[in-house]
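Study this protein:
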Amino acid sequence: MANKLRRLTASMMGLPRWVQAWLAILLGTNMAAFAFLDTRVGIWTAAAFVVVAALNLPMMFIQGGLTRLLSLPHFVWLPLMPYLYLNLFGSSPLPPGSTRVFASAVLAVNSISLLFDVLEVFRWCKGRREVLGVAD
């Protein structure tokens, strides 16, 4: 177990700095949902975050680090994106305030992530299954 944790840490720390920063932004934005559990936007975002984390955490340990396959659970966000969009720009949009700012941030960050995710899942399907950030 300690060896797997060391390899997982090495995988994360071996990623390019911009990827590490992006992952921190992605994680932080989605974790912020727990500060908005008194709103429907917060509840749905937190639920999606929990599903993604429940799928990705075991995969990280099983694979011994970060691989492109970790992008696949992010597709759970696909139904969340139109939901957030409608809450921002639909017929009854969220009023100005922190919930609207949060919904905008999640929509922007997760949409960008999904663009990366499509590419990474494609690469994984094409055989690029190495553990990222470590030299084997």
In short: Helices lie at 2-13, 17-31, 40-63, 80-89, 98-125.
